[in-house]
Hints:
Blueprint: H1 2-24, H2 28-55, H3 61-83
Keywords: Membrane, Transmembrane, Transmembrane helix
Transmembrane segments: 40-57, 69-87
Protein name: MFS transporter
Amino acid sequence: MPVLAVDGAGMGLVLSPIMGTVLSRVAPHAAGALTTAQQVGGALGVGIIGIVFYGALSGGVTVAFQHGLVYLIVITLVIAALVQWLPRARAAA
Length: 93
C-alpha cells in the first residue's frame, strides 16, 4: 500500500505544474478546451482504470495494480504525443 500513496502523491505534485506549463504554450482560445479535456479525461480515466483494476482483481491486488499501471502508462504516452498537435501561442512582435 505505500506504493499507492507514493503514486498518488507524485501525481498530485506533478499534474498541476504540467498543466501550467502546457497552458502557457497554447493559444488562449485553446486553453479552455484543454482545461475541459483535462476534467473530462480525469473523470473517464478514473472510471476506466477502475474497470481495468477490478477486472484483473481475480489475480490479486498486485496483478490488478500492475494492469492498471500499464494502462495508465500507455494512455499517458498517447496523450503526450497528441498534445504536441495543440495550437501554439504566437510570439508577440
